[in-house]
Amino acid sequence: MSLKKEYLVISIMCAFLSFFLVKTFGNQVYSYDIGESTSVKKIQELMNQLEKLENSKEELLERLQKLEAKISDHEAVIAENIYKGEEIQKQLFEARVLAGLTDIQGPGVEIILNDRKKDNIMPGEMYSITDFIVHDSDLLEVINELKAAGAEAIGINGVRILGNSRISCGGPTINVGDDQRFAPPFVIHAIGDPDALAGYFQRADSIYHILTFYGLEFSIKKLDNVRIPRYYGEVDFKYAKPVKED
Amino acid sequence: MSKKLRAQIAVSIVSLILGLALAAQFKNVQKVGGSVSLQRTQELTRQVQKLEQENEALETQIREYEKRISEFESAAQNEGQSNKLIYEELERIRMLAGLVDMEGPGVVVTVNVKHVSEWGEDAIIQNVRYDDLLKLVNELNAAGAEAIAVNNERIIATTEIRNAGDYIVINTNRYSAPFEIKAVGNPETLEAALKLLGGVADDLGAYLHINIRREENIRIPKYNGTLQYKFAQPLQENKS
User: Fold this and answer.
1) From the CA of A167, how many Å to the nearest CA of chain B?
2) pLDDT band for position B106 (50/70/90)?
3) Largest Cα–Cα distance in chain B?
4) Of the four, A120, B65, B115, B169, which is 20 to 30 A from B122 by CA?
5) How far apart are CA B113 and CA B124, in angstroms?
6) Is the separation of the CB atoms in B16 and A14 below 8 Å?
């Protein structure tokens, strides 16, 4: 009996010893893979956060719609009292459409722009990694070509592009519009003649040929209906004033 | 005694192997889970960031609407005041759309070809390209320009700056060098953004003649093409 107990103790100790041995060495080898054990917790945390954010987005949108309705009520009341009030209201609406302050829809294209996939780089291929990623200047060119092709409204990852929108480099991300940072893939929506928009990228001098030459993902899909959200954000003129003619 | 020792060694070795195998097994399982979850974590993080930004934009918009509504409410008793509000709003939106002549402080940037003498003969390094102008305009926008015009073509949401043969097309009209870019905004910020060490002016200055000067009052014309959507339709109904 005492002999058996001895065996048992030794074997358990040996098992533990070897287990921790592997653990220790294993950790040294794989130490770059940070967050292995915390990943499940981390994912749960992120999913909770995501859900919360989605809920608050819905709430915000609801509030926004209520406020919008309130404003147009106010405008309608005022318009009733002024000369040609209806005309003013119509002008207000049309100006809002042109200024990008209304959601808009119509036929158009969807372009997806993404970095080259790591696994289709040929072994021994001569390259510089910067050739394979989407740069701010690439995005700027694509948007400019869409405008040249007659796009009436453009959005990048859901951000409406206005005349004063910038597209600039923010390290690993690209800044679009006021202060929105995006990492690839970039989903670009444009409303206009789908054939004209898609066809423009077949021109010999299009950025399309350069980007696809380097193996970047550049897909163009014609769509019967594209929806582009309105511009959200502050519209403030601090320096520019309208010219008053007398 | 020797029999006992042999048995002990045998058991130890077996246990050792078992332990190693067990640990290796755990390691494998975790590794697969780890790389999958890493991708998932990244994607979720991106979604969280995107939503955070969207919510922030919505909140800004809500604050602006609330401000407007309180303006309406405080003007409700005064007919003249409320009428003024609605005309101001119309003006503000038309300003944003680029349909109003604007003036204010800012910078004027002139872009021209650079002349060099080669073997005693006059030559230029390179013509002005459309993307030179595109970069300048984008940089000015990033620095907070409120209104921009290139050769008096107002830059609006649909403005293209694109080459067509030897010309550059802006708002469907053709231009060639020299170019004059006018931007209204904080003059110091606009100038500093362009003159940043290694910035756009440095880049383009290598082969173009670039001049940047601040001005107290710049006048920028409104967009003078016809603005009419053929394909795009607003989603909300016109309530009037």
Assistant:
1) 7
2) very high
3) 113
4) B169
5) 6
6) yes
User: Domain range holding B191?
Assistant: 103-220
Binary contact (B27, A26; C-beta < 8 A)? yes
Instruction: Round to whole Å and give the CA distance between A43 and B192.
Output: 43
CATH top class, domain A104-228: alpha beta
Number of cross-chain residue pairs from A and B with Cβ atoms under 8 Å apart: 322
Domain-embedded: residue B116: yes
Q: Which residues of B touch A140 (CB under 8 A)?
A: 134-135, 138
**Taking the model in full, what pTM does it have?**
0.75
B43 and B135 inside one domain: no
Per-residue pLDDT tens digits for A55-76: 999 999 899 889 988 888 888 8
Q: Which of residues 54-113 of A touch B (CB under 8 A)?
A: 54, 56-57, 60-61, 63-64, 67-68, 70-72, 74-79, 81-82, 86, 88-93, 95-108
B192 touching A (Cβ < 8 Å): no
Q: What does A63-102 look like in DSSP terms, one character per residue?
A: HHHHHHHHHHHHHHHHHHHSTTHHHHHHHHHHHHHHHT-S
Adjacency order of strands within the sheet including B173-175:
B161-164, B167-170, B173-175
Is there a domain that residue B152 lies in?
yes
Top residue of B8, B96, B159, B172 to mutate, by most chain A CBs within 10 Å, is B96
Residue A27 at interface with chain B, using a CB cutoff of 8 Å: no
DSSP state of B222: P
Q: What does pLDDT average to over chain A? A: 82
Examine the fold and report which residue of B97, B114, B144 is the final residue of a domain before the chain moves on.
Answer: B97
| CA-closest candidate to residue B84, choices A238, A202, A82 | A82
Q: What is the pLDDT of residues A82-139, one digit of tens each?
A: 777 778 888 888 888 888 888 999 999 999 998 887 666 666 666 677 778 888 888 9
Domain ranges for chain A, please list them.
Answer: 39-98, 104-228
Q: Are residues B13 and B88 in the same domain?
A: yes
Residues B83 and B113 reside in one and the same domain: no
Instruction: Tell which B residues from 65 to 124 touch A, by Cβ distance under 8 Å.
Output: 65-66, 68-69, 72, 79, 82-83, 85-87, 89-106
Tokens found for residue B41: 């974590």
B9 & B73 share domain: yes
How many domains does chain B divide into? Answer: 2
Residues of chain A in contact with residue B154, where contact means CB-CB under 8 angstroms, are 163
Residues of B in contact with A15 (CB under 8 A): 15-16, 18-19, 22
- C-beta atoms of A104 and B52 within 8 A: no
Q: Which residues in chain B touch residue A4, judged by CB atoms under 8 angstroms apart?
A: none
Strand blocks (E) in B83-207 = 102-113, 115-118, 121-124, 147-150, 153-154, 161-164, 167-170, 173-175, 179-184
pLDDT at A246: 55
| C-alpha distance from B123 to closest chain A C-alpha (Å) | 26
* CATH assignment of the domain containing B140: 3.30.70.1880
- Please indicate, yes or no, whether residues B215 and B131 belong to a single structural domain of this protein: yes
